[in-house]
Structure formats: structure tokens, C-alpha cells
Write a structure and sequence with these properties.
Blueprint: H1 3-21, H2 37-57, H3 72-92, H4 109-130, H5 138-159, E1 167-173, E2 179-184, E3 190-193, E4 201-205, H6 207-214, E5 224-227, H7 229-238
Parallel strand pairs: 1-4
Antiparallel strand pairs: 1-2, 2-3, 4-5
Helix pairs in contact: 1-2, 1-3, 1-4, 2-3, 2-4, 4-5, 5-6
């Protein structure tokens, strides 16, 4: 995706999240156990502010917590201001400049993508908490699957190197382009090929539910699981962030 499309996704996702939050800040968030919508708003606002500070300086920044006694409309206004901060920082940056990230590329481009996906997923979380959620845009969701498999999963597997010994997964979007062959292990290795193939377990369906399944937000019934169902279930228990 182009940077302009990511900016639009951040703008749309942050608006959708805050719009849903205005309906009920006290509602529990089923996809984030233990959180209320207010906690989700605080997390999103903090993440937007954190990313904005990193992009502005190019250096790692401290994560900003929600100010004390910031509740209700004040919390919503605080989070909205931080959504504007990250948009302004990204719009004003040199996308090719060096920048701290926790994955590739080591430029602000990483944060264009990360914040677009963060905003879209948490908008879905908030909508699910208060009403029926809208599917994530399929092109963005396919991109999210790619980011999750290439950036997030290796971090998790590296931390639990002994748990995987070469099990393979195939992910296939049926509504947009997107196929991946993934092998987990041995010794903490992760191999991701953007290709068709045969795996121990295959996850197939429209990009939005496949992405949400990767994030452990929808059940297996929302996608098509082919092959080793127990291995697919293991993914939902162990590949968790």
C-alpha cells in the first residue's frame, strides 16, 4: 500500500474507534479480555502519541500514559488529539529517513503501516464492543496479515524457540491478493514465503476474517480451516500478542 492509503486508514480507523467509543465507554471489549472501551481508547491514544514522538525525532520514545483524572469526554478529546499528532507527524516526515522501529524497514514507512493497522483493528474492537463491527478493508487486512507474519510472529517465536519444530501453515485470502507459506521452527526460526503451497494447516477466507483470526479475534468458524485443525487451534493459543 502507498503511504497516502495508510494515512487514510489511520484517519478512518481513529474516527471509527472514537465514534464507537462515544456510544459506551464502559462496555466490555470481548476481543481484549479485561478491558472496557475506555481502556481501549487510552491504549489507542497512547500508541498514536508514542508513534508520533518516534516519527518526529527518529528515536525511541517513552510510551505516554493517560493523564490522571482523564475520563469521559476528556479521555476522548485526549485520544483524538493524539490521532491528529500521529497524522501530522507522518504527513510532515521524510519517509526515507532513519527511524527507530521494532521491525523493517527502519524508516517512518514502518509507522505508516503499523498505525494504519493498529487503528483499523482497534476500531473493529470498539465496534464489536458496542455494536456490530464493520469488516476491515480487504486490501488493508491482507497487508495486515503480511505484517503479522513477517514482523510480529518472528518476535513471538524467538521468545519461545523450543515450542516449534517446523510446523507449517498456509494463509490464503479469497477476496484480494494474498497467500503465504509459513514454517515455524526449528530453533526459533520463521520462514515466510508469499506463495501457494501445501502445509500442515491452511487458513482460507476473506482477508478481514483471516487477519482477525491471526490476531485471535474471531473463531475458526469464521474462516475455512483445512488440514490439521488441532495445529490451527494451537496457533490461537500460542501465537498471541
Amino acid at each position: 500500500m502507498e503511504n497516502g492509503a495508510y494515512l487514510s486508514a489511520i484517519r478512518d480507523g481513529s474516527r471509527a474507534l472514537l465514534q464507537a467509543a462515544r456510544l459506551d465507554l464502559d462496555a466490555p471489549v470481548p476481543s481484549c479480555p479485561g478491558w472496557r472501551v475506555a481502556d481501549l481508547v487510552g491504549h489507542a491514544g497512547g500508541t498514536w502519541g508514542w508513534a508520533a514522538a518516534i516519527v518526529r525525532t527518529g528515536a525511541r520514545a517513552d510510551y505516554p500514559g493517560v493523564p490522571e483524572d482523564c475520563h469521559g469526554d476528556q479521555l476522548l478529546a485526549w485520544a483524538e488529539e493524539r490521532s491528529h499528532q500521529v497524522l501530522d507527524a507522518l504527513e510532515g516526515c521524510d519517509p526515507s529517513s532513519n527511524c527507530w522501529t521494532f521491525g523493517l524497514p527502519r524508516t517512518p514507512v514502518f509507522w505508516f503501516r503499523r498505525q494504519a493497522l493498529e487503528s483499523a483493528v482497534h476500531a473493529w474492537d470498539a465496534q464489536r464492543a458496542v455494536d456490530g463491527p464493520e469488516p476491515i478493508d480487504p486490501v488493508l487486512a491482507s497487508d495486515g496479515i503480511d505484517e503479522f507474519l513477517t514482523v510480529m510472529v518472528p518476535r513471538q517465536i524467538k521468545a519461545h524457540a523450543e515450542d516449534w519444530s517446523g510446523q507449517s501453515f498456509h494463509f490464503h485470502c479469497t477476496d484480494v491478493e494474498g497467500e503465504w507459506m509459513v514454517q515455524l521452527g526449528p530453533e526459533g526460526s520463521v520462514s515466510v514465503d508469499r506463495a501457494h503451497g501445501k502445509a500442515d494447516a491452511a487458513i482460507r477466507g476473506p482477508a478481514s476474517p483471516v487477519y482477525l483470526w491471526c490476531l485471535n479475534r474471531v473463531p475458526a468458524q469464521d474462516v475455512e480451516v483445512i488440514g490439521d485443525g488441532a495445529l490451527a487451534e494451537r496457533w490461537t493459543k500460542e501465537i498471541v500478542f
